[in-house]
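Margin note from the TA: students keep mixing up input and output lines. Inputs are the sequences; the output is the structure of the whole complex. Example:
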Amino acid sequence: MQIQPIFAALRKHKLAAMLIALEIAFACAVLCNACFMIASRLSMMGIDSGVDESALATMQLTGYDASKAADVDARALTALRAIPGVQDVALLNSIPFGARRGTAGITTDAGGQHFGGVIEFYVGGPGSFEALGLQLESGRGPQTDDYRAFTGLMPGDASIQITQALAEHLWPGANPLGKEIWMEKFHYRVVGVIRTLVRPDPPGWPAAQRDWCVFVPALPGPYLTGSYLLRAAPQDLPRVMRDASVAIGKALPDVVIDRQASRTLGDLRDNVFRNDRAMAGLLVGVIVALLGVTALGIVGLASFWVAQRRKQIGIRRALGATRGDILRYFQTENFLIVTFGAMLGVALAIGINLMLMRFFEMPQLPLWYLPVGVLVLWALGQLAVLSPALRAAKVPPVVATRSV
Amino acid sequence: MFTYYLDLALRSLKRSPGLTALMVLTIAFGVAASMTAWSVFRAVSGDPIPWKSAQLYVPQIDMWGPQAQASNPDSDKGPPDALDYGDAVALMRDHRAKLQSAMYQIGPAVVPADAAKHPIQTDGHAVFSEFFPMVDAPFQYGGGWTAADDEHRAQVVVIGSKLNTKVFDGGNSVGKMLNVDGRDYRVVGVLKEWNPQPRFFDVVNTGGFASDGEGMFMPFTTAIAAGISNNGNTNCNEVPEAGFEGLQRSACIWIAYMVQLDDAAAAEKYKNYLEGFARTRYPNWAPNVRLRNLPDWLDHEHVVPSDTKVSLLIALGLLIVCLVNTAGLLLAKFLRRSSEIGVRRALGAPRLAIYAQFLTEGAVIGLAGGLLGLVLTGMGVACVGLVLPRDIANLAHLDVSLLATTLVVSVLASLLAALYPTFRAAHVVPAWQLKSN
């Protein structure tokens, strides 16, 4: 296949070919960046919570005076434990994908000079660590005498478990066991490292900070009340939740069940990522539309050129070119235009990404998106040009002898 | 003459119906897809009160001083993003803006009159009377309370439409009594369905987005007197004394504040006042205050995820691709017609006439594509509800000015695409064009 004549022909249609190349360049740039955005949303939606989500649910009670907290908790725990199928019930202030009650900034020194970041304190009553199904990497889990009563917003002094990601952020490369963190005057010692534990509100945080959490053991009190974690076999969970509402209604007719927040962790997770799912879906729609329009453009221009060159094609056929030659001519032409456009597009995609990084705090586009984008456009171009090219190949040699 | 060109254009378009359809469809498709995406993206990213957002400001005051600033992760070293009780009350007392309100989130329980029904957990805000005119809250029945009610801690509430339906089965319930946390309050106003997204007046507590409409509003002073505690975030520099009263005495921040200032001069004046205010209240450090208008504030609080804005750009990119595509097709079509132009020129048509004819043809395509695009956009926005969660879909609505812009852009782009080949054809000697054929 000689490329020279194709170039010569394209030079005659410089502007139209340039415009199609430009369109492909734009398509390539938008495609790469949009796919990257979808991928980052999907990876966020697939975040590993570190807990046994499918077996967990929460009940949230409000509407009672703090002085009655001890009584309410005792009755609620008894009522919930009595439900058949419930394996575990424990108090937990924040709930993964649910209520957020322990977000605070920490320091790694008593003086408050070395800011460690804003993390989530999961303050849990006896049994909550095990009910969550957290996996220990090193050190130990909470022991009975780790759970202590407290009266302030948070326990003032405790032995805690910390996520690997947070440990690595606070003390890179060092063994976190025995290290200490402070929140104002409150003081915590790391005794265990957990594999991971997601924040209640992961979409609001940068990717690297979504599992900056600690588990603080504590006994129920005025600041750890009304927020229960239920554990049951996944297939029992919907029924357990229905029974739980009824049981609480009977045992504590005066308190208010926050029905919006009292759901299974699976439901809560769905809810947390709802907007992200919608956005990802819409972006997929935009990409499909984009590829569709690009393909239509290629089909249009190629059909037009085929119609315009009927006579030349006839002459070539009369001079001995096979159908395959004609087919390949148009395919090669398309390949050249798409290649040119895609090269421009790669540059444009990188440029756009740099701009987005600068103005919109987007992460850097992984480079492998670019060759994949080019491949997709090549395939799209070849598919789009196939039908006009086949039509061109069908032009009979006799056309050469007819006048226009 | 125009009708003649129009006729010529239609004839020419009819000659190659496939290509014409393709061009019109591409424009229509591009307009529809990008506008639908745009309207949805804007719904989740947008300005909830566009007609007024430039006049609404959020004041910030540094009540914690330089020592707390040392551990401030924010590079701007700006003041905290909410107020403590003392500052909020003092600002309200000074009353320097046209309209202003301190507010905090409440989550009281409503006890229905029917004893058989369970108490209902609601959410809402404790606000001042000027809140309602400031945020243009839409009333179905009744209205807000008065400044005198603020002062006298009147037992009144404004309820949302959902709570009205739940407790009073809808209808005009102004004047009825509502039991909130064990006390009776008189309903003075019922709001229409009102669920601004983002929840601009209190983004610190709602994170910007709340799925349900506000349940109720009650006077700030009344809520404080009744001890209805803060249901939103509390951010403390040091551990406060116990209880809600301890919180009020502390420097913990938990109160949102918004003011309305009608022009830049008023904003400047208010900023000066804020600085003076900070200087008198916190003489130990230089005043560190901010006065951001609502769009800047939403941006500062990262209410809208940054990639939502990028999605808007992507919708725009789609439109550009479609327009470039059409331009390419139009070019190819027009460049082929130099012989036709040659004939017309040889027959005495001036260049202007050639321009007029071809630009008409381009405009017809642009207009047809744009109009079809409008119809498709209408359908697209109507169908959004099938794919997206309802509360997002409800927000997506067509913006007339945006649609008009799109129409103009699509016509302009096709005109532009028509211009170059016409220019080239119109400037070649007619005889040469005739001969070359």
